[in-house]
Amino acid sequence: MEQRVRRHETLLVLGVSLAASAVWSLLRIVDRLTRQESLADQTAALNVSRTPDRPWLDLAYQLADIALSLVPVALALHLLNRDPQDACRRIGLDLRRPGFDLGTGTGLAALIGIPGLGLYLAAHHLGLSATVVPAALAPVWWAVPVLILAAAQNALLEEVVGVGYLLTRLEQLGWRAATAVGASAVLRGTYHLYQGFGGFVGNAIMGVIFGVCYLRFRRVAPLVVAHTLLDVVAFVGYAMFRDHVSWLP
Fold first, then answer.
1. What is the pLDDT of residues 62-111, one digit of tens each?
2. What is the DSSP string of 17-80?
3. In whole angstroms, what separates CA 147 from the centre of its chain?
4. How many angstroms separate the CA atoms of 119 and 121, rounded?
């Protein structure tokens, strides 16, 4: 009975978060592949302005989206807290090892960031990826702070739910470590399919690296640091330097 409850709980948590994103992403890639224009000629825009003519309302939209996207994180931690051990301590989302978390997270970001950019450029050149626009906010004063918050929100959602929570529950359900890491990585790749096949492959590889790192150290904090750094560089860097980097698609 307990195993069945955990299995249903895991499916429901994923169903209101990353698995739901994966379903929409699958539909999006089908939509892209069935258009007349090639995949490389299409655009996948992130962090888009909702009401660019009314910046105050646009800011409210952005902040609401960030806050509501963190609800599944709170839900996953709440459910993990039903176990004897404190959820944040159990998955390593705490401040016990700040130096290790920052150092390891920075190293992971460097390990993944440069090869990831190369993979994206290669996939785009081969027509396997859409043109990704990491930041499409209007030029307003609050754009950079919101992009940083969006980066942190993405990191918390994907690493807490997709790695810390998911691998913990799969382990409790008796999954082998390699199978659990593979499932987490495929899920990560799938909800990035809206970017094209390069996004799937790159994020699946990232998922394997992050999953192995989590099982090795039992800390999700370095993954949150690494993911936040990667997204901050992508979002803020694109917003600030897009017009000065001619080799970007």
1. 999 999 999 999 999 999 998 888 999 999 999 999 999 999 999 999 99
2. THHHHHHHHHHHHHHHHTSSS-GGGSEEE-SB-S-TT-HHHHHHHHHHHHHHHTHHHHHHHHHH
3. 14
4. 6
Q: For the CA atoms of the chain, what is the radius of gyration?
A: 18
* DSSP assignment letter at 50: S
Counting the structural domains of the chain, the total is 1
Maximum Cα–Cα distance for the chain, whole Å? 59
Q: Do the domain assignments include residue 249? A: no
Residue 154 vs residues 5, 96, 148: alpha-carbon distances, Å: 28, 23, 10
Asked, for residue 230, whether it belongs to a domain, the answer is yes
Residue with tokens 């790749």: 189
Print the domain residue range for 196: 2-244
In angstroms, the Cα distances linking 73 to 68, 83, 88, 164 are 10, 16, 11, 10
Residues sharing a CB contact under 8 Å with residue 72, sequence separation 6 or more, in sequence order: 13, 16, 17, 18, 157, 161
In a domain, 233, yes or no: yes
The whole-angstrom separation of Cα 85 and Cα 164 is 14
Token reading at 169: 């529950």
